[in-house]
Amino acid sequence: MTEQEHQERSFVKDDDMAIIVCPSCSAAKTISVAQFRNAPHTVTVKCKCSKTFKVLLDFRQSYRKPTNLTGIYAMQPPAVGGGIVKIRDVSLTGLCFEVKGVHDIKIGQKAIVEFTLDSRKETKIKKQVTIRSIRTNAIGCEFHQDQAFEKDLGFYLRF
Asked: Using one digit for the tens of pLDDT, what is the confidence trace for 133-142?
């Protein structure tokens, strides 16, 4: 990807406001993006420094950090199965993992996912999840809401 094709990302807050930061001069501007709420959007922005750049508006509830962590999963009854997974990304509310080969995972099923953060503390994370999306071998999961906030995970996502 060339410098001209590089795309900035802005996480949209609950009030539909996004902070756009110029990659050239670091000038920041807060704008309303309510009109783009129901679909992924990329907007072209021209800064006061004359730099034009693209910004992807991200409406996720939580920032998702890309990862390359190894973990394991175990489906909860009545579903069966489990194995080694690659954690592709993680957020405060869920994660996406990738399985190898054929699987029988279905949306709505429950599982336990365990992995170790690649942080200095190497914190072990064990979460109950509900399967929310399936894209071939990429499985999107939501953490059960009855579980306490994981401060080590929150710290890991900030850095």
From this structure: 999 999 999 9
Q: Are strands 7-11 and 52-58 parallel, antiparallel or unpaired?
A: parallel
Residue 57 in tokens: 């508006």
The DSSP H or E segment spanning 158 is helix 151-158
Indicate whether 131 belongs to any domain. yes
Each residue's pLDDT tens digit, 7-24 = 677 777 767 888 888 888
Phi, psi of 6 (to 5 degrees): -55, 140
Claim: this prediction has a pTM higher than 0.70: no
Domain, as residue range, for 15: 7-58
Return the SS3 of 153: helix
Do 82 and 136 fall within a single domain? Answer: yes
- Say how many C-beta atoms besides its own lie within 10 A of residue 112's C-beta: 14
